[in-house]
Design a protein that fits this description.
469 residues; alpha/beta; 42% helix; binds pyridoxal-5'-phosphate
């Protein structure tokens, strides 16, 4: 027998051990610190053992407890960044996806996986009122945004054959960093990304957008696309999508909506996302607000032809041998990726297990939790909101009489202390150049009691920081 082969009974035993570990972990999640008591050096020391020449067998699993101990848990009180908490039915599907090991390149390689992915993508699009959109799963919002801008470039200033020419892309100053990265990678250049000022609600200013487009045209430059955000990473603000769509039509620009953070909330509050279905392309991140385990991004597009123009370049060995449109379908004609994991399985199983309504309710709970925190911040007397709460991100800071730079230092010290205390996990945002604490609710495990811990924790951390000064 090949040394790598595992008997079915050994697999069963190991799987039971791993799922047992996972189940125990999930059972204690609420009691764990939100960040483990580890340092960079202690984590290196914990995992420095050389890889063995001779296998350890099932004893190899013993070290998994160290992996858990050194991990930042998907706690009910994790409110950092924009990150879901990992829905366990989906995690089980991920195990099966790895066992099946489908390479979701094309139908002929993975008939069930390709068919399911197309079905789930279309169903998700329809649930967001984007009926008729196609698309595919990918690693995350950054990859989806990169592919979207590649499509925009190919549709307006084709570059695949002869190389990139400068074309201008517009986005608000609040846009996610993946957009400037995509500009660089696509050869468009970050200097050709116009960062349009945002208004007091952190939404792209339409007047400034029009001004920038007309100025570029007058100077002989080629406007290419507008990236609107439906949920900016800092504050969750939603750019004025219908008006941006009208401008895109007027100037024949590609409209991409970065919905990685927010757009899936259209499942629960569609009225806040009017204009989403005007987008030529739309990024989603089920590993954020659909609670799926990493990784799980989606790029949706209105016109599959535009995706093929951007991505289709098929080597002879991969050419389809059938005329059947279903059996001849290949994701690699519409995506940057060739070898692809069966990501649709987790989304499909988790949506079927819980039902769409459960997800809509979880999203509404997150929205409620954000409003609750906003009220508690306002009522604290020692904290102030730093931005309107539009979706589920709450930015706030400790009120201080001191100069802005000192207030920034104080708030940064409070954040470090909050994380060290390990009872809630927050992150930060820079708003108008100032440092703010930030809690983002995309966590199906969070209860109101968890939310109620945030303000007391921040105040306790602030007292400790001020006492030590
Ligand atoms: C608005 C927005 N766009 C894009 C991204 C990037 O997504 P990912 O981390 O999945 O690449 C994020 C991540 O937080 C985001 O909030």
């Amino acid at each position: 027998m090949n040394a790598l082969q595992l008997s079915p009974s050994d697999f069963r035993t190991l799987a039971a051990q791993v799922t047992g570990l996972a189940a125990d972990y999930l059972a204690t999640l609420g009691d764990l610190r939100t960040f483990p008591e580890v340092s960079g050096q202690s984590s290196v020391t914990a995992f420095k053992e050389a890889l063995p020449e001779k296998g350890l067998g099932s004893a190899a699993l013993d070290s998994l407890t160290a992996v858990l101990d050194f991990s930042r848990p998907p706690s009910p009180r994790f409110f950092g960044y924009v990150l879901g908490s990992g829905e366990p039915v989906a995690a089980l599907a991920d195990l099966l996806a790895s066992v099946l090991n489908q390479n979701v390149t094309a139908w002929r390689s993975a008939p069930a996986a390709v068919t399911l992915e197309r079905h789930v993508v279309e169903a998700l699009a329809a649930a967001l009122n984007c009926r008729g959109y196609g698309g595919s799963f990918c690693g995350g919002g950054s990859m989806a945004n990169l592919m979207a801008l590649a499509m925009a470039r190919e549709a307006r200033l084709p570059a695949n054959a002869a190389g990139a020419r400068p074309g201008v892309v517009y986005a608000s100053s609040e846009v996610h960093m993946s957009i400037p990265k995509a500009m660089a990678l696509l050869g468009l250049g970050r200097e050709n990304l116009r960062l349009i000022p945002a208004d007091e609600r952190f939404r792209m200013s339409l007047a400034s957008l029009r001004e920038a487009i007309t100025a570029d045209r007058a100077a002989g430059r080629v406007p290419l696309a507008v990236v609107a955000s439906s949920g900016t990473v800092n504050t969750g603000s939603i750019d004025p999508l219908p008006e941006i769509a009208a401008l895109c039509r007027e100037y024949q620009l590609w409209m991409h909506v970065d919905g990685a953070y927010g757009a899936l909330a259209a499942l629960a509050v569609p009225e806040r996302f009017a204009g989403l279905n005007a987008a030529d392309s739309l990024s989603l991140d089920p590993h954020k607000w659909l609670y799926q385990p990493l990784d799980c991004g989606v790029l949706l597009f209105k016109d599959a032809k535009a995706a093929r123009v951007a991505f289709s370049y098929t080597g002879d060995y991969a050419r389809s041998l059938t005329e059947d449109p279903l059996e001849g379908f290949a994701f690699f004609d519409e995506s940057l990726e060739l070898s692809r994991r069966f990501r649709a399985l987790k989304v499909w199983l988790s949506l079927r297990y819980h039902g769409l309504d459960a997800f809509r309710r979880a999203i509404r709970a997150d929205l409620r939790h954000a409003q609750l925190l906003a009220q508690q911040v306002a009522a604290s007397g020692r904290l102030e909101l730093a931005a309107p709460v539009v979706l589920s991100a709450v930015c706030f800071r400790y009120l201080s009489e001191s100069q802005p730079a000192d207030s920034d230092r104080l708030n940064a010290a409070i954040l470090r202390r909050v994380i060290e205390r390990g009872r809630v996990y927050l992150s930060n945002a820079t708003l108008g150049g100032g440092f703010a604490l930030r809690a983002c609710f995309v966590n199906h495990r969070t209860t109101e009691a968890d939310v109620a811990q945030i303000v007391p924790e921040v105040l306790a951390a602030a007292d400790e920081v001020l006492d030590a000064r």
